[in-house]
Design a protein that fits this description.
Elements (H helix, E strand, L loop, with lengths): L5 H4 L4 E6 L1 H5 L3 H11 L2 E8 L3 H7 L9 H8 L4 E7 L3 H9 L12 H5 L8 E3 L3 H11 L13 H4 L3
Antiparallel strand pairs: 1-3, 1-4, 2-3
This protein binds uridine-5'-diphosphate.
The site of uridine-5'-diphosphate has 8 residues, from loops.
């Protein structure tokens, strides 16, 4: 294969995670980032960004027409969001486990939503729900030069192979 493509550079799985405006305003960035770091995941990009309506519409396109859609767009565009890309083995499902269920009331304790939220419309954090969604969302929120490719040598302390 003569072509050098993005995939060759990042063989590890990546996911898109965003602390929503409620989490940012409530000063939960540090606490949440700490949980991802302690799990052994690797941060490869992050920024504080107030998303435009257009970005929010693209991000939540699958929910267009649902009763909560307009409110969700109003909310996600209402203030800064802390957008991140995390990397690691099975990082998409691992991140969803750290995050918990969509409804914070039903989300177990020791999950981010279970610990910090009550309302489904104020559930603190977003995490991609599949590898395909992750690839789409990372492209939507980040340009390539905002993501690092250099290696951090903790991998051998986390992964057996
Ligand atoms: N949401 C909402 N009301 C609902 C369902 C969802 O406000 O009845 C919001 C909530 O913030 C959720 C987001 O829409 O995180 C996307 O919903 P999805 O079902 O994709 O849940 P997630 O993947 O975020 O757990």
């Amino acid at each position: 294969n003569q072509q050098c493509c993005e995939k060759d550079l990042d063989t590890e799985e990546r996911t898109f995670v965003a602390i929503k405006p409620d989490g940012v305003q409530r000063k939960l960035i540090g606490e949440i980032v700490a949980r991802f770091e302690k799990k052994g995941l690797k941060l490869v990009g992050c920024k504080l960004i107030q998303p435009s309506r257009k970005l929010a519409e693209k991000h939540y396109a699958e929910h267009k027409g649902k009763p909560f859609y307009e409110g969700l767009l109003d909310f996600i565009t209402s203030g800064p969001v802390f957008a991140m890309v995390w990397e690691g083995k099975e990082v998409v499902s691992t991140s969803r486990s750290l995050i918990g269920l969509t409804d914070p009331k039903k989300s177990p304790m020791n999950t981010i939503r279970g610990d910090f939220g009550i309302d489904v419309g104020r559930n603190t954090i977003h995490g991609s729900d599949s590898v395909e969604s992750a690839q789409r969302e990372i492209k939507l929120w980040f340009s390539k030069n905002e993501l690092i490719t250099s290696s951090i040598t903790i991998e051998k302390w986390i992964n057996e192979d």
